[in-house]
């Protein structure tokens, strides 16, 4: 049996240097230096809409490109979407390399901000 979507997201996120998991709002969140870069939404969660997903820190420009290019896979999540975050649906046939790339981008955006704050 293949690993669950959460197990795969967890394995990807926790492989990033300094990344750690914190439960918040009843779901796993992934952080670097305690700054959020990804949040899991299970299918049963009212935010999941019946499909497991992960919400990832992004830029508004990248968010728009992804949602426009693949609207069945990517969406603008509630609450954090106006800040540029992107939702990735994890149902059906998932390109896990692509998901890992999106998660890495979110991690790097967050890690860069943390580093910039420390150097000022």
Description:
It is a single chain. The chain has 120 residues and is α+β, with helices and mostly antiparallel strands. It has a single domain, classed as Aspartate Aminotransferase, domain 1 (Alpha-Beta Complex), CATH 3.90.1150. It is 37% helix and 24% strand. It contains 3 helices and 6 strands; from the N terminus they run αββββαββα. The chain has helices at 5-14, 60-69, 96-119; strands spanning 19-24, 27-32, 35-41, 53-56, 74-75, 86-89. A 6-stranded antiparallel sheet has the order 1-2-3-4-6-5. A hairpin with a 2-residue loop joins strand 2 (27-32) and strand 3. Helix 1 runs parallel beside helix 3 (96-119). The model has no long low-confidence stretch (mean pLDDT 90).
Shape: globular
- The portion of residues assigned to helices is 25-40%
Provide the low-confidence segments as ranges: none
Integer-rounded radius of gyration: 14 Å
* CATH topology-level name: Aspartate Aminotransferase, domain 1
CATH class: Alpha Beta
How much beta, percentage-wise?
15-25%
- The total tally of domains equals 1
Decide which structural class fits the backbone: alpha+beta
């Amino acid at each position: 049996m293949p690993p669950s979507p959460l197990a795969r997201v967890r394995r990807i996120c926790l492989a990033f240097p300094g990344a750690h998991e914190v439960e918040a709002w009843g779901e796993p969140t992934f952080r670097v230096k305690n700054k959020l870069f990804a949040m899991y939404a299970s299918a049963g969660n009212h935010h999941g809409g019946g499909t497991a997903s992960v919400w990832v820190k992004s830029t508004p420009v990248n968010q728009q490109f992804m949602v426009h290019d693949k609207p069945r896979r990517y969406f603008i999540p509630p609450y954090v979407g106006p800040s540029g975050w992107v939702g990735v649906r994890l149902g059906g046939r998932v390109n896990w390399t692509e998901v890992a790339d999106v998660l890495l981008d979110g991690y790097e955006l967050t890690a860069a901000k943390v580093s910039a704050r420390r150097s000022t």
